[in-house]
Amino acid sequence: MSLVLDAAAQNLLFREARTANTFTDEPVTEEQIEAIYDLVKYGPTASNQSPLRITLIRSPEARERLVPHMAEGNRAKTATAPLVAILATNNEFHAELPRLFPHFPQAKDVLYAERPVRERSALLNGALQAAYFIVGIRAAGLAAGPMTGFDPEGVRKVFLDDDHTPLMIVNIGRPGPGAWRPRLPRLNIDEVITTV
Questions:
Q1: Is 145 exposed, middle or buried (0-12, 13-18, 19+ CB in 10 A)?
Q2: What mean pLDDT comes out for the span 78-82?
Q3: Residue 113: what pLDDT?
Q4: Is 141 left (phi over 0), alpha (psi -120 to 50) or beta?
């Protein structure tokens, strides 16, 4: 059985997509970000908790505050990307569950009353949403440069609060010269999937 998506869409989203390391100076518009979010918001999360929160870094002042918290190898590309997004989890996501999970509004208190439970669940489901966001960037014809090489506590102190946990930083834009490294190998299906 073949995939329903045509080969061009498969290539755009997966086969030809790479983590971009350089970008042109073409801006990423609010309309593009809105279109990306309007697509990826439908990706599933447990109890529809939707814990991902996105902070867009557009101003030079905000970028100057962010770059020192990036790992050395990520500073230059973060300093020059047209748009940078801080992806974080909201560990108080349960406050929205009566609206987001209306057929079981008690989930807020029954399933997610304890902060450690929320933090674990937000980490997993926020990571899922971060992956959707990266694929959404690709679907918009843009390139993503996701990075976990940064000081999470520093980023949290400067841009977030104690109820949010940074997951990753994503540079966004049109790929620039030398944006791609060669495709790295992947595991074969028999190394990943076991049938019992």
A1: buried
A2: 97
A3: 96
A4: left
Both tokens of 138, joined, read: 């690709």
Sheet with 143-147, edge to edge strand ranges: 52-57, 83-90, 164-173, 143-147
Give the DSSP letter of residue 150: B
- d(CA 122, CA 94) in angstroms, rounded, equals 10
Q: Rg for the chain (alpha carbons), in Å?
A: 18
Overall pTM surpassing 0.90 (yes/no): yes
> What are the C-alpha distances in Å from 163 to residues 70, 92, 115, 160, 174?
21, 6, 10, 8, 33
Q: What is the mean pLDDT of the chain?
A: 96
- Tokens at 193, concatenated: 């999937």
